[in-house]
Specification:
38% of the residues are buried. The strands form three sheets. Strands 1, 4, 5, 6, 7, 8, 9, 10 and 11 form a nine-stranded mixed β-sheet that branches. A two-stranded antiparallel sheet has the order 2-3. It has a two-stranded antiparallel sheet with strand order 12-13. It has helices at 9-19, 25-43, 81-90, 137-148, 163-172, 200-205, and strands at residues 3-5, 49-55, 60-66, 70-77, 95-96, 98-103, 110-116, 124-129, 132-133, 153-161, 178-183, 186-187, 193-194. The radius of gyration is 18 Å and the shape is globular. It is α/β, with parallel strands linked by helices and 208 residues long. The protein is built from six helices and 13 strands. The chain is 33% helix and 32% strand. Bound molecules: 1-O-pyrophosphono-5-O-phosphono-alpha-D-ribofuranose (PRP) and uracil. The site of uracil (URA) has 10 residues, from helix 6. Uracil binds at residues 79, 132, 134, 191-193, 196, 199-201.
Length: 208
């Protein structure tokens, strides 16, 4: 399975706070941003480096800089927006694309309503972000759209995944690694992740 579980203690602690039903919108949003930053740190761990010549105030020396592709961050609207600033804190030069999808509450199928990506999407290492990977329908559709628009290097970053969603992404997009802070137990009959944290978009934006 192409899935990486990020078990860093700070991430796990903050995720537990997010899951609690009494955690309000402000804290939920702040915690998500903090976790996104910590996850971005883990995801970028293997980014290639190269040496360049620089001059410190004292002497010339060779020092390391990032060598790989430039980064693009693509939040899946709405809830993915809650992870954007956390990633941008670490990679401030990244370009940002947006994919608008919502899950039809009856069919649970994704409905696309917006897509705007950097023109050079094919030359960037794309990090698609969405806190919830439930049935996998939304993320799979977003990844297909990214590929259709020319993206060649994509990573999917989510906060909480259901086993069902991981399976769908691994089947539909075996080339795309998933990074998640938790693989929860299952989906319930309404397609919510159990135990999960409820509706991420509603908790981020206070639209309960
Ligand atoms: C949530 C979540 C994912 C999707 C996951 O978005 O942010 O995008 O559901 O479900 P799936 O894996 O079964 O497709 P939602 O449709 O609630 O829209 P929102 O972000 O605008 O609230
Ligand atoms: N979307 C959410 O926000 N939460 C879930 O548990 C499933 C889909």
């Amino acid at each position: 399975m192409n899935v990486h579980l990020i078990e860093h203690p700070l991430i796990q602690h903050k995720l537990t706070l997010m899951r609690k039903k009494e955690t309000g919108t402000k804290d939920f949003r702040e915690l998500l941003e903090e976790i996104a930053m910590l996850m971005a740190y883990e995801i970028t761990r293997d980014f290639p480096l190269m040496e360049v010549e620089i001059e410190t105030p004292l002497t010339k020396c060779r020092a390391k800089v990032l060598a790989g592709k430039k980064v693009g961050v693509v939040p899946i609207l709405r809830a993915g927006l809650g992870m954007l600033n956390g990633v941008m804190n670490l990679i401030p030069a990244a370009k940002v694309g947006h994919i608008g999808l919502y899950r039809d509450p009856e069919t649970l199928k994704p409905v696309e309503y917006y897509c705007k990506l950097p023109g050079d999407v094919g030359e960037r290492a794309i990090i698609a972000v969405d806190p919830m990977l439930a049935t996998g329908g939304s993320a799979s559709a977003a990844l297909t759209l990214l590929k259709e628009k020319g993206a060649k290097s994509i990573t999917l970053m989510c906060l909480v995944a259901a086993p069902e969603g991981v399976k769908v992404i691994n089947e539909d997009h075996p080339d795309i690694p998933i990074y998640t802070a938790s693989i929860d137990e299952k989906l319930n009959e309404k397609g919510y992740i159990m135990p999960g944290l409820g509706d991420a978009g509603d908790r981020i934006f206070g639209t309960m």
